[in-house]
Amino acid sequence: MAYVHKVLVALDQLVNVICGGHDDETISAHWERMKYEGKWLGRLGCWCLNKLEANHGHLAVEGDLRRTRIVEQTEIQELKRELGVGSGAPVASSSTGPDPARK
Question: Measured on CA atoms in the order 61, 65, 66, 70, is the torsion positive or negative?
Answer without folding.
Answer: positive
